[in-house]
Amino acid sequence: DAMGGFKPTQVGQLPPGAIGAFKPQQMAALPPEAMAGFKPGQFEALPPTAMRGLGPEQMQNLPPSVFKVMDPKQMAALPPDAMAGFKPTQVGKLPPDVVGALKPAQLEAMEPDAFRGLKPAQLEELKPKQAGGLKPELLDVLTDKQVKAIPAPVVARFTDQQEEAISN
Predict the structure, then answer these.
(1) What is the mean pLDDT of the segment spanning 59-88?
(2) pTM
């Protein structure tokens, strides 16, 4: 497959129009190191369906700058296991509405270290339906300021274990 030999510099030269036609199989074939070549304008052009082809190794190599342009539809299409590759520097760049669009399974798949990268303005966007994905290990790493940013309707749905994690 031609995509398997791509280098970051080659990815960086692809016109957004070409990227807009990417399929999940093409994204899956991109070597993780090639992901470092993505620029925000190119990432914006990625169709949500193409996001289904991404895995954790590829996600961790994306430049943090592309996370600023990710939209809720792209995020919704990302396989939960890909979330395990997120780094705190990337997560902190996500638009708040994208954080609000995370599926519980995606939240659950995040590493605590990456979850710690969320800013209060992002945490404020969490929805009650996301409460189930906020496992105690994630909540445990948050600062008081971050915990206070979690909306009351979300906290109202917490289990005893989740409550305990935020009260420590």
Answers:
(1) 95
(2) 0.90
